[in-house]
Write a structure and sequence with these properties.
single chain, about 350 residues, alpha+beta, 11 helices, about 40% helix, binds 3,4-dihydroxyphenylalanine
């Protein structure tokens, strides 16, 4: 008895599937696809021959043919996925750069390896000095709202003291005005608000970081510069504690020949306030051009916390008192290393920077 082409196909399906499994390349798969399912494939020829059958037989044969096509097509698809994956793996493997093969003598020694810049090194040294005195180190955002940079520090809108800290404002529309912080003092507010909400007073912290001002750069000013802020909130704190901390810090950081002095000054967030000066490291107090013949160089400001600031953050001024200070990290680097011009710190001249590795 002869078998019909349709019967033959069914018998051969297993064989077909095995041959699909054996296809080794994408090209072979494409050819097989054309001969198995394309226009001149056996499946298409059989499809055409269905027209000659009786309606009932046609229906049964049609269903069988459809099933055969589905099985073959899904086997082809599965094979394609595998072959493409293998091809991708092979190409990645071919592109792999085996650095184990690089011959050591091909590398040009000595390799030049970077190091932290003078400002970063100075910041670390300052932190070390204060940690040695019992302070912790905290960090604050460089982008602040008007509240943190000014208002909570007792500098309301329109206050003339805002002129001292001219900055870059980003108007987001009422009520939020955002500024690049002009000093590290706003971090005091963050620390105090946090301590109040977590009931973790007292505070003994320093807060270093980058600040911005709309200044014209010159030998002693940069638009982006660094400060380190100090804050103590505790019971029974006086101006004497502040003076002691400043003097201890000065001797520890600049050495025993350099002294500090506090001159009356004005800051809206401290009362009384003082300017904090150290012996000029260039002339050692004799007077020179850098210190305008005074023998002293101003590093920053300090004072006893103004009651308005304690009130703004919700600290009870009858129970707690404190002091704060803030001074320039770049200025410390300049004084310690006797740099004529602070702009050298940001000019990326490796002959200059390399001296401080
Ligand atoms: N934030 C001030 C400035 O940048 C410096 C300063 C003065 C900080 C007095 C203080 C302070 O903490 O108590 O000019």
């Amino acid at each position: 008895m002869t078998t019909s082409p349709l019967e033959q196909l069914t018998e051969q399906t297993a064989e077909l599937l095995a041959s699909i499994e054996a296809l080794a390349t994408i090209e072979a798969l494409r050819e097989a696809e054309a001969s198995l399912t394309g226009k001149r494939s056996i499946l298409s020829t059989l499809q055409k021959s269905l027209g000659a059958l009786e309606p009932d037989a046609r229906k049964a044969a049609g269903a069988e043919l459809q099933e055969a096509r589905r099985v073959v097509e899904s086997a082809l698809e599965a094979r394609r996925v595998l072959l493409l994956r293998d091809a991708r793996r092979a190409s990645l493997e071919a592109d792999r750069l085996d650095l184990g093969d690089v011959i050591v003598s091909d590398v040009h020694w000595p390799l030049s390896i970077g190091h932290p810049g003078l400002v970063a090194l100075t910041q670390r040294e300052l932190e070390d000095v204060f940690v040695g005195m019992g302070f912790s180190v905290a960090d604050g955002p460089e982008v602040e709202s008007d509240w943190f940079n000014f208002e909570a520090l007792n500098i309301p809108p329109g206050h003339p003291a805002r002129g001292l800290w001219d900055t870059f404002y980003v108007e987001l529309g009422e009520p939020e005005t955002v500024v690049l912080r002009t000093h590290t003092s706003p971090t005091q507010i963050h620390l105090m608000e946090h301590a109040v909400s977590t009931n973790t007073l007292p505070i003994h912290s320093v807060m270093p970081g980058r600040c911005y001002r709309r200044d014209t750069p010159d030998a002693r000013h940069l638009v982006g510069f660094h400060q380190i802020e100090g804050l103590v909130v505790d019971r029974g704190i006086s101006f004497g504690d502040l003076a002691g901390v400043i003097e201890t810090f000065t001797r520890a950081y600049f050495g025993p020949d350099i002294a500090s002095r506090l001159r009356p000054g004005y800051f809206p967030f401290t009362e009384p306030s003082a300017e904090f000066e150290v012996t000029c490291t260039i002339c050692h107090g004799d007077g020179c051009r850098t210190c305008s013949d005074t023998g002293w160089i101003e590093l920053g400001g300090c004072g006893v916390l103004d009651p308005a600031v304690l009130e703004a953050v919700g600290i009870d001024g009858d129970e707690w008192s404190g002091f704060a200070f803030g001074f320039g990290v770049d200025r410390c680097a300049q004084m310690r290393h006797q740099l004529g011009d602070m702009r050298a710190l940001i000019e990326n001249d490796t002959r200059f920077l390399g001296q401080f590795s």
